[in-house]
Design a protein that fits this description.
The chain is an alpha/beta fold. Helices cover about 40% and strands about 25% of the residues. Strands 3, 4, 5, 6, 9, 10 and 11 form a seven-stranded mixed beta sheet that branches. A two-stranded antiparallel sheet has the order 1-2. Strands 7-8 form a two-stranded parallel sheet.
């Protein structure tokens, strides 16, 4: 099989376009003798004459035209490769695997993906739902390229394995049954609900966040029911079985639940993104991080309070 040399094929194509060896040499910034030598070597490689004398000029043989007909397909494909590489280097194409905890998927990841479809349709985002702590395990193992987690669950800021990006301080509102005595109170304090039954998980980050917020307000919450999923928690609130702290990122669509903001003491949970050290230099990853930041900025506008 012939070992094709792209540079020599380019010289042959330029000769076809310019008509003379001298003009070809000028176009390619070569000497005429170098052009002639390269074309002679190409003829030896393919095993057929490529040029024939025509007075003081040369003309391409039929074999040369056959070679160029196939070479054009190669040049076209190389142009496509150049274009794709340029797009890749600017973050316009690529695949980014994102591990994110459940509430971050609809609140941050999905809006970011929608925005990227408009600004960088060549960037493909693959989403994997994971618990807040598990997202970092997946990142460390190389199974995702970017992790969304809670700061409370994240490795220390100085962890040499990761680069962290602060995304959002997500406020915690209180969910009350619509008929609750304090459902109409506009300036609600967490301490006002010290005597209520609280609904939160028996362990894990949300248990820690709820207990920590209540204790900062001066009381230890009485756990009336234990649940980890927001569907179950909000269903029990709607049924009048207790109250709960709910992140503003959580979509609440229950007629029987009233969301109330807390005052200046309002607790927050911090949402962070992380990549492996050096991974932030990947253009497509940078695109996704910027889209997540924009989604987080829109989320800060808050959720309407009924």
């Amino acid at each position: 099989m012939v070992e094709w040399d792209i540079r020599k094929l380019q010289i042959l194509r330029t000769l076809r376009e310019r008509g003379t060896v001298t003009a070809t040499a000028e176009a390619l910034r070569m000497t005429p003798s170098a052009v002639s030598q390269q074309l002679t070597n190409l003829a030896k490689q393919v095993g057929v004459p490529l040029l024939e004398a025509q007075g003081r000029r040369v003309r391409l043989t039929d074999a040369a035209r056959l070679v160029l007909r196939h070479a054009e397909a190669v040049f076209e494909q190389l142009e496509r490769a150049d274009a794709e590489l340029a797009a890749f280097s600017h973050g316009e194409v690529g695949e980014v695997r994102v591990g994110a905890f459940s509430t971050a998927v609809p609140a941050l990841v999905v809006p970011a993906v929608r925005a990227l479809r408009q600004t960088a349709p060549g960037v493909v985002v693959r989403v994997r739902e994971a618990e807040a702590g598990e997202a970092y395990e997946l990142l460390a193992a190389g199974e995702v390229d970017l992790a969304l987690s809670l700061a409370a669950q994240a490795p220390a800021v100085g962890d040499a394995r990761f680069t962290r990006v602060e995304l959002l301080a997500d406020p915690l509102d209180v969910a009350l049954p619509r008929g609750h005595a304090r459902a109409a109170v506009t300036e609600l304090r967490l301490a006002d609900l010290a005597g209520e039954d609280w609904i939160f998980g028996g362990s894990g980050p949300w248990s820690d966040i709820t207990r920590g917020a209540c204790e900062a307000a001066g009381f230890s919450p009485r756990q009336g029911h234990s649940a980890a999923g927001w569907t179950a928690i909000l269903a029990m609130v709607e049924a009048g079985m207790g109250v709960a702290l709910v992140p503003r990122m959580v979509a609440v669509a229950r007629d029987g639940v009233v969301m109330r903001e807390l005052g200046e003491e309002r607790p927050v949970r911090h949402v962070v993104a992380a990549v492996r050290k050096g991974g932030e230099d990947a253009p497509a990853v940078g695109r996704v991080v910027r889209a997540l930041r924009e989604a987080a900025s829109r989320t800060r506008e808050g959720r309407p309070v009924p």
